[in-house]
Specification:
Blueprint: H1 90-97, H2 114-135, H3 138-145, H4 172-192, H5 200-225, H6 229-241, H7 244-265, H8 287-292, H9 296-318, E1 322-326, E2 329-334, E3 340-347, E4 350-353, H10 360-376, E5 382-384, H11 396-401, E6 411-417, E7 424-431, H12 440-444, H13 446-450, E8 457-467, H14 473-480
Antiparallel strand pairs: 1-4, 2-3, 3-8, 4-8, 5-6, 6-7, 7-8
Length: about 500
């Protein structure tokens, strides 16, 4: 490229024109690299090699010479023989180009010998090493001072090491944060954990937490070995103390403690005001229904009448003989809030025939007779529980009643709700074990046999609860007064 040009150099093709200089006149940078401190240059006695670019043809685009001297021709200068008297010296070349240099520029420097360049390079390397030694951490100095370790630097290469970027793979603060998070999760699982049904999901979560904690244990050991001992030891202690095994143990203890409390206090009732512990009525029957319905004595008399009418009608049709298998039972009823009420529960005597019916028509006739007696007594909702229906699961009818259809079933079960009172019920059973091919019905009736019942026959049951005796009516009304303006707990 010519020494002087108004054209901007291409990128990477030399130094650019400073932005603060006028664009009408462009002066290139010195060809040779300028150094910070000028050093003495050895001048040899031999011939000086002149750069071809420095003595090349004049650039036609260069500005005119200020003193008005004509520009030198573009022809190449004549070759100079070594040792010739007309050979230009370095001072001549320096003086010839002085007027075209940028102010403050040291001008063209003479090339130094290879030994001088090596000396300057060694000096710069020594200065770089001394500056890097100031910022190197003590840990790195200890590693460099360790015996048996020496850095071999190639000639002319810099002895400073590159600075590491980024933190450690196991940052102690981040590790401690992860350990605390996993520890809190394990503690939460300890509270949620309950042995039994549905606990498998919590156990699976505890296993995952255990695996994560195992990884964090190894990370803690690495952090301890890297001289972050306090954080590493704290993380390790947290992992060892709050771990899945501890979580499962704590969860089991909480479950056992709650189970013991419920066992000691019986069936736990819903939270309510303690005033309801002495409620005189029933939580399941409104007090007005109890007062408007039949009394305890009226229910007993009416239940005896209904059962007697059924026995009479069936005997007239089939000639049955009846036996009182269980006597009547009566006891004080609970109020449903953890205390006793002023009401009573009554179960009428259980009657059973000494023989049974075997055919489908006979069983159907027994059902019609019982339904007719109940209708005359004001009880209309008699249902056949063993009738096939869509909500039954396959095999359920066979397991409970001995068959899937009425003609193959060994047990017919009749039931009605609201018998005489809203809290009363009536039930009747027809048992024919000749159809019990699977033996399930006979197996279920073994408990009834131990209580005095026979394996086969027709049974009649009638009972009720929340019955008020006539003698307790006045006291019952007085005991209800504190609850007149209160709503029952749910």
């Amino acid at each position: 490229m010519p020494l002087f040009s108004r054209r901007k150099p291409t990128p990477g093709g030399g130094r650019g024109v400073p932005a603060d200089e006028p664009g009408t006149f462009s002066v290139p940078e010195p060809i040779f690299e300028a150094v910070a401190e000028p050093e003495p240059v050895e001048v040899s006695d031999g011939p000086v090699e002149v750069d071809a670019e420095a003595s090349g043809p004049r650039d036609p685009n260069a500005p005119p010479v200020p003193d008005g001297s004509p520009a030198p021709p573009l022809t190449s200068p004549p070759a100079v023989e070594p040792g010739s008297a007309s050979e230009p010296t370095g001072e001549d070349l320096e003086a010839a180009t002085a007027r075209f240099r940028r102010p403050g520029s040291p001008g063209r420097q003479k090339r130094a010998s290879p030994s001088a360049r090596r000396a300057r390079r060694a000096a710069r390397s020594k200065a770089a090493r001394s500056k890097a030694a100031v910022v190197v951490p003590k840990a790195v100095e200890a590693e460099e001072a360790a015996p048996g370790r020496s850095d071999v630097t190639a000639p002319g290469a810099s002895a400073s090491r590159p600075t590491r970027t980024g933190g450690s793979a196991f940052s102690p603060p981040m590790l401690l944060l992860a350990v605390v998070a996993v520890t809190l999760l394990a503690a939460l699982l300890a509270v949620v954990y309950r042995p039994g049904e549905g606990a498998w999901a919590v156990v699976a979560a505890l296993v995952v937490v255990g695996l994560v904690q195992l990884v964090l244990v190894f990370a803690s050991i690495v952090v301890i070995r890297r001289r972050a001992r306090r954080l590493g030891v704290l993380a390790l202690v947290l992992l060892l103390v709050v771990n899945p095994v501890t979580a499962m143990t704590v969860g089991g203890l909480v479950f056992d403690r709650s189970g013991d409390q419920s066992a000691a206090g019986g069936a736990r009732e819903e939270d309510h005001d303690p005033i309801w512990d002495t409620y005189p009525g029933s939580a399941y029957v409104d007090a007005k229904e109890t007062l408007d319905g039949p009394s305890y004595e009226a229910f007993v008399d009416r239940s005896e009448t209904i059962l007697a009418d059924i026995r009479t009608a069936l005997t007239a049709e089939f000639g049955f003989e009846w036996v009182e298998r269980q006597p009547a039972e009566s006891e004080l009823d609970h109020n449903g809030y953890g205390g006793d009420s002023m009401l009573y529960e009554y179960a009428a005597p259980v009657w059973q025939t000494t023989t049974t019916v075997r055919t489908f028509d006979e069983k159907s006739r027994v059902v019609e007779i019982i339904r007719g007696v109940l209708l005359r007594s004001g009880i209309a909702n008699l249902y056949l529980q063993n009738a096939p229906s869509s909500w039954r699961e396959p095999g359920e009818l066979t397991e409970q009643y001995g068959g899937e259809t009425l003609d193959t079933q060994a047990l017919w079960d009749l039931h009605t709700y609201g018998a005489i009172t809203s809290a009363g019920s009536f039930s009747a059973s027809i048992v024919d074990l000749t159809l019990d091919s699977a033996g399930t019905v006979e197996k279920d009736r073994q408990f009834d046999v131990t209580s005095g019942m026979a394996l086969e026959g027709i049974e009649l049951h009638l009972d009720a609860y929340a019955l008020l005796k006539e003698a307790d009516r006045a006291d019952f009304l007085a005991a209800l007064e504190p609850y007149a303006d209160l709503d029952k707990p749910k």
